Amino acid sequence: MKIFNRIIPRILLSIAIATVSSFAQTVVENPAKPMAKDAGRIIALAEVWRITDEAGGFYFKSPRDLRIAADGSIFVADAEQLLRFSPGGKFLNNLFKKGQGPGEIGGNWFDYLIHGRDLFILDMNSRRFWRADFDGVFKEPINLEKKDYDSLLGVLPDGFLFEKQEWPPPSERTGKLLEILHTVGEFARDGSWRRDVATFKPKTFLLPQGGRGWDTSITAISPDAKFLYAYHGRDYLIEASGLATGGVVGRFRRAYPKVPHVESDSERDWRNKNGGPKAEFETDIDELYPVGDRLWVATSTDDKTKGRLIDVFDKDGRFVDSFYLGAGRHLMAVREDAVYCQEKNEDEAIAIVKYKIGG
After folding, report:
1. Integer CA distances (angstroms), 316 to 22, 27, 62, 295, 310, in order
2. Domain spans, the chain
3. Torsion on CA atoms 317, 322, 328, 332, rounded to nearest 10
4. How does pLDDT run across 340-350, given as a tens digit for each residue?
């Protein structure tokens, strides 16, 4: 999950048991250029369908967390909306019900995941968590044994992954970068806590009256629910943790030309007022997307004519390919043969578009 969101995500890293220990202690170092001879191309895509809100029934404000069910149904979260579409992109219904009752969501701050024919919805305002069907019908509440795990990361075959954050005491928040302990815990389907499986320590600039994010935090679960993949920092480094055994089982990165950060007026004013650090460069990674036994990495490189640069790694952490997504496209989800992108027209109207890979 990218703390600015999440998505989740996803790569298969087949690592023999005999080599897990040694791989976990090393980093697979990749050069700046991938193996593919045609790397750096604009990927060939053919439009399959396009969702806009012109037909009514819903209105795109800031759509996020596009998720695809096994039957091809499409779900999209937005401001006070949880939208359901058919596999062909036809709007079916809005599952969002505002309130504090069973199956109701208190506000915009919610998350959801899909497993089989179930929706698992977390109202982060009230920390209520429940199971519903694809029509949004409430089925059962799930009460977590440990309430401080308040961020939903993934659904396992027989449980869930949640994350908690532990902040330094107020006395230490004196205008400096401090580590925030992120702990990923596993819970059973009845909400009982099982164990912690991974910890990460991204930094945040903290003041007595608040703070400002510094490191990016992204977590993603492999399709087979065997691995948790994470990017916590500003520099290009991806870690894989084993969900069965816990602990890091692999790390990999590639030589990456950093992208300069253009500081906005509001950022500069805040930094000058509070003494915060100046970001010289963008964080190297924007999001992680698993595709079969490959990992797509959306980088910070966003070319005005070619779009976002996507790096591709194989199951052993080798840098095998890279391509541009095309100008004006924001990647929301990936399948083996298709990508789902958010786009805007000249009037800033938002559309969600499914493209077949290969043209």
Report:
1. 13, 11, 35, 10, 18
2. 17-59+158-357
3. -30
4. 999 999 889 99
| Region label for 232, one of left (φ > 0), alpha (ψ between -120 and 50) or beta (otherwise) | beta
pLDDT in tens, 242-259: 998 888 989 999 999 999
| Alpha-carbon span 79 to 230, nearest angstrom | 27
pTM above threshold 0.85:
yes
Specify whether the CB–CB gap between 147 and 186 falls below 8 A: no
Strand pairing category for 248-254 and 28-30: parallel
Q: Which two tokens stand for residue 239?
A: 């870690």
Q: Residues near 133 by Cβ (< 8 Å), separated by ≥ 6?
A: 117, 118, 119, 139
List all residues 6 or more positions away from 110 whose beta carbon is below 8 Å from its beta carbon.
77, 82, 121, 122, 123, 124, 125
User: Per-residue pLDDT averaged across 208-215, rounded?
Assistant: 90
> What H or E segment, with its residue span, contains residue 322?
strand 319-324
Query: Residue 336's pLDDT is what?
Result: 85
Residue ranges in 252-321 assigned as alpha helix (H) = 265-274
Whether 341 contacts 325, CB under 8 Å: yes
Whether omega before 257 lies within 30 degrees of 0, making that bond cis, reads no
Average pLDDT over the chain, rounded to an integer: 91
Inform me whether the pLDDT recorded for 23 exceeds 50.
no
Residue 75: beta bridge partners? Answer: 67, 84
